[in-house]
Amino acid sequence: MVVVFPLLALLLAATPGATAEPTKSFEQIARLADAARVADQVQQAIDLYGEGVRLRPAWNEGWWELGSLFYDQDRFPEAEASFRRFVATSAKPGPAYAFLGLCEYETKQYDRSLQHFRMWAGTGWAGTPELTDVAVFHFALLLTREGRFVEALYLLATEVQRRGRSPAVAEAMGLASLRMKNLPEDYPPERREIVWLAGNSALYAALPPNDFDRADEYAHRLLLHYDQAPNTHYFLGTLLSFEGKKAEAGKEFRRELDISEQHGAALLELARLDLEADQLAEAASFAKRGVELEPKNPEAHHVLGRVLLATDHVEESAKELEIAKQLAPDSATIRSHLAMAYYRLGRKAEAKAETAAFTELKAKEGVFAPPAEKTKPGKRPGPPK
Prior knowledge:
The chain has 3 domains: 24-121, Tetratricopeptide repeat domain (Serine Threonine Protein Phosphatase 5, Tetratricopeptide repeat, Alpha Horseshoe); 128-260, no CATH class; 283-366, Serine Threonine Protein Phosphatase 5, Tetratricopeptide repeat. The radius of gyration is 28 Å and the shape is globular. It has 385 residues and is mostly helical. Helix 19 packs antiparallel against helix 20. It contains 20 helices and no strands.
């Protein structure tokens, strides 16, 4: 008998289902995972969603919730992996692209992050207001890092219009306004003040209903302390131009050229102002210098093409605008001016094609602008339907 009991115990232990818990179905796991998430039992929810996606890899709701939980815990590599699986299994990835961009920003994969933010914008900026705010902000930071300062400032201005004043947005606007290819965490500490002054000036200019008095106050302090710093006068010129003070803006752009002879952006702004004022000879000179300095800048070729069109050098204008189109095929205004050049050259079929492209791209401009409000504030983003 002494031997029987241990043997019996071993047999019982080896019998399937004798002591093990019954296997849960996928449906049971999904319900338990949702209940744990709602009860704020985060780790249990993570474990259950993880079990669910292992059983059913195409369960896109599970990948979404798993990615969201990891993101809320600042576990960005795991969140990124989950959102990647969601994108692979969902017909409407929508806000997952924004979450991917945010995760990759945190893990310093900046080029991939920027790519996913662009994909997010291309799908219509899907997500809650909270997601839109944080994603648009980081999108703008990466555009600044890439040197796309005008695009960055446009996005940051939409943030100001939605959120009002914010020190973080002011700092980001300062970096873009001063054309610094930096993120807030990596620029020199000794430049904090100049960034702060320029950023607050830009912020107040964008703050509804455009507080130009406060913007000018910060601009005056900027000029007082940093008169010789690169891009100070360029920024002041853009501010004055935004305020409609074209003559004063032109003086600031010329002052920038006195400090930095190779300042391509200042040259293009002066060419635009001269074009508006019908001072075409000087406009052509500035625009040609701009193209020489920045041959891969689509706006440089665009401005030169416009000047050549205004001076009846239509064949040369078309060539410059074709280069601009090649560099920036999604620019509606470039396609519009190219259509004008083609019409004047008698190339009617090409002119009609460019006009059609302009109309299509113009209609999309609203899609590529962050909306003022997507859903009710405070709602946790769910998976796209």
